[in-house]
Amino acid sequence: MDQAGLSLEPEVKAVLDHLANGTDFLLSGGAGSGKTYSLVQVIGELLRTDRSSAIACITYTNAAVHEIESRISSDRLSVSTIHDFLWAVIGSFQTELRLTLTGLMEGEDPKINPGSVAIAAEMFAGKAIQYKEYTVLGEGIVSHDEVIVLARAMFDKYPKLGDVVRDRFRYILVDEYQDTAHAVVEILLDILPKSGRRGNCGFFGDAMQAIYEDGIGDLRPYVAKGAVLEVQKEQNRRNPRLVYELANNLRTDGLRQRASADISAPNMKGGEVREGQIRFYYSTGDEDRLQEIRDHLAWDFADVVETKELNLTHNLIAPQAGFGDLMAIYDKDGVIGFRDRIVKYIKDTDDIAKYDDLTFGEVVAALQAGKGVKELNKVSPTAGMKDFIRQHPELLADAYGRNFRAFRRMYVDKDQLIDDKKQSEADLARKGSKRCDFIKHVFQIQQVVHLYEERRYNEFLRLTQFRINRAADKVRLKEHVEAIAGMSERPVIEVIEYAHQNGLCRIDDRLGEFRERKGYLYDRLVVVPYLSYQKLYAYLEGRTTYSTQHKIKGREFDRVFVVLDSGGWNNYNFNNLFEIDGNPSVLARTQKLFYVCCTRAKETLAVYFRNPSPRALAQANSWFGAANCIKL
């Protein structure tokens, strides 16, 4: 890619000057400032001017990898996720990997928890250490979390790895650096500089958008000691004026955005930055007024590409999106909570294996027998669990009759239900979804139906076992698809069996194994109406306007509606956000999340806050303007 004729941004020129002087750099820019555009300009100019050097660009998600690859490509450019980059460096050193992984699993406080794996000096003899989307430590298979810990330890133990990286890449550029793990930054800024080889690292991102707990957040210590030189990018190319000025009030690092000097920027019109629109809706009392606000906004909420309603958690979305019953099974089952309480108690006090031949009911009875009040409380359901059990006594009776070993090994988590959420149908599905086999099977049925309805027959035939050999088969197929579409109110097991019997989606070994290993969960899922799965499928495939506030980072939409409801989650407090008060870490976390949400809007931003405090309301008037604060 030859960029000789292109005009470089002043921030890009500053970055290139730092690199020419052999200095690591940080390009900081607020939301919508065009950081990715700057990154691509830097890459292009380095490829043009330093024709003997290779560049590694590493980022947080596969979606970001594809975004960068779509803008620039070269044989000397490697674009990958952080985890893939690290594995590409360490994966070929198998002897060292085996030794390091064994060491990390040993001791009273292992860096990688071995679980039930018996640690021995030769435990990985003859096995290749592999990086996959899941973890089986006994087989030497590691996943995302382990790769970072493993890589950090490898660089510490084998310093020549730094030379290997420097020899391979003259430049390493990190996109969305704030989401990068501390250990990765330490490798790049503490360990690599010790190598005798030439090389530099550059970081692109925004500390104000550091909304993931495991990311480094910012590089202030490195900037303060001069190890990294900062370049600030103050322009805003995405948001209208009212939105980015609101966002400026939320920033805590002194960076204030202004209109772009580029009259062709997306947020410009007729040579001026667009004004935009912001609204703050609030209500008092216990009644939820969400639908009233939607009606007042009069947006086209069916436009799922350019309209988003943002909630803090999937739990808040599930009832509105129509799959609240499924979320309750995966995330609010008091019997499963009681089981986990019992398992923790045994692990803290006894050898859990000696209970494996008993039923769960027999284990509970044995633990509760002869206990005093204090100890009995530890092996009894909590108040919340008791409320659930009173409403569902049949579930506790079911659990009591199940083998304890099988029941305690039945992993249930909401990620198995709502993992891999897309923002639109066009998005790529993330590798390594945690979605459970039951949900995958039902979704395969829905995908078969969807492909048929969309007349995507080649894809349909690749996915289904149904075969079309004559005209009559086409008639039967149409009847089967229409029959499934008409079974929305029926228990999903009827749909599964119908699709199996008619060759649309066979019941395979994975579903059979799920029923065998997770009988309690299976029995709960099969009676749920098919409609709930249809609604869940639409949500996860990006066919609804709903999204969590975390999932939209890096995205932009014409219309954004932010619902300020913490859902009982103590990590966030929206009254504290507007009062600019309270626990500092909770306040900072909430400020950053709200900043990310607001800066998604390309035209209109609406916010709804139920029961704000007087101080919070006063701040809303200041930030949004009194005329834009509307009481319902």
From TrEMBL:
Top-level EC class: isomerase
E.C. designation(s): 5.6.2.4
Catalysed reactions, semicolon-separated: ATP + H2O = ADP + phosphate + H(+); Couples ATP hydrolysis with the unwinding of duplex DNA by translocating in the 3'-5' direction
Binding site for ATP: G29, G30, A31, G32, S33, G34, K35, T36
Pfam families: AAA_19, UvrD_C
Keyword annotations from UniProtKB, A to Z: ATP-binding, Helicase, Hydrolase, Isomerase, Nucleotide-binding
Chain ranges of the UvrD-like helicase ATP-binding domain: 8-253
InterPro entries noted in UniProt: DNA_helicase_UvrD-like_C, DNA_helicase_UvrD/REP, P-loop_NTPase, UvrD-like_ATP-bd
PROSITE patterns: UVRD_HELICASE_ATP_BIND (PS51198)
Superkingdom as given in the UniProt entry: Bacteria
SUPFAM superfamilies: P-loop containing nucleoside triphosphate hydrolases
Stated name of the protein: DNA 3'-5' helicase
Species annotation: Labrys neptuniae
